[in-house]
């Protein structure tokens, strides 16, 4: 047992370091989207208070952080079996890593607790919504043709990012999403780019299934003009 402990501690330290890097990458991606002029225009920043803009930024950060967690939880993630335990440990470290990042920025303890609660709440919400997103995607695809295994695989690949994008857009707009399709489209594209790049890295550069899934994502974007995307 003692011989295994240094290796175990080293694995945990590696997971913590990786989680810290991922959490900061998530915050950076959220900031990049938030600062885009098109995003600010579509979100109506000129009419919003600084407090409301800050709330939107927080929702974006949480969306990217939760997307990492959902990706690491994905049952179809193509990684070696021996990597599963490492990814499970990494997954548990993401939220804590972001809390530590905020702490280095001088965020007070009471606000850290609020952040922790928000991440946990959004994770529960978006994870729950995956089932409705999958069902809705299958219904749309099957209306056009009979689904085969490849179709089902593409739908499954995109479920995490679509669930997060739908939920994030809903919260950014405070539920008033009518007529704000371009904002959703921009948010989905940014989250999808982040998701695809991270998934390719985790899967060791296996891009073929994701390449096929991108075609399905383009069809989703074309359908965005239809009413009420949020699953019920």
Describe what this molecule looks like in 3D.
- With 232 residues, the chain is an all-alpha fold.
- Helix content is 78%, strand content 0%.
- The protein is built from eight helices and no strands.
- Helix 1 (4-35) packs across helix 3 (50-73), helix 3 (50-73) packs parallel to helix 7 and helix 6 (149-172) packs across helix 7.
- The longest helix is centred in the middle third of the chain and has 36 residues, at 109-144.
- The radius of gyration is 18 Å and the shape is globular.
- 29% of the residues are buried.
Task: Output the keywords.
232 residues, disordered C terminus, single chain, mainly alpha, 8 helices
In brief:
This protein is an all-alpha fold. Helix content is 78%, strand content 0%.
The percentage of residues in β strands lies in: under 5%
Number of helices: 8
Beta strands, count = 0
| Shape summary | globular
Order of helices and strands: HHHHHHHH
Largest sheet: none
Helix content: over 70%
**Mean pLDDT metric:** 83
Intertermini distance: 50 Å
Q: Give the radius of gyration.
A: 18 Å
Structural class: mainly alpha
- What are the low-pLDDT stretches, counting only 5+ consecutive residues below 50? 227-232
List the helices and strands and how they pair.
Elements: H1 4-35, H2 37-43, H3 50-73, H4 84-104, H5 109-144, H6 149-172, H7 181-202, H8 208-222
Helix pairs in contact: 1-3, 1-4, 2-7, 3-4, 3-5, 3-6, 3-7, 4-5, 5-6, 6-7, 6-8
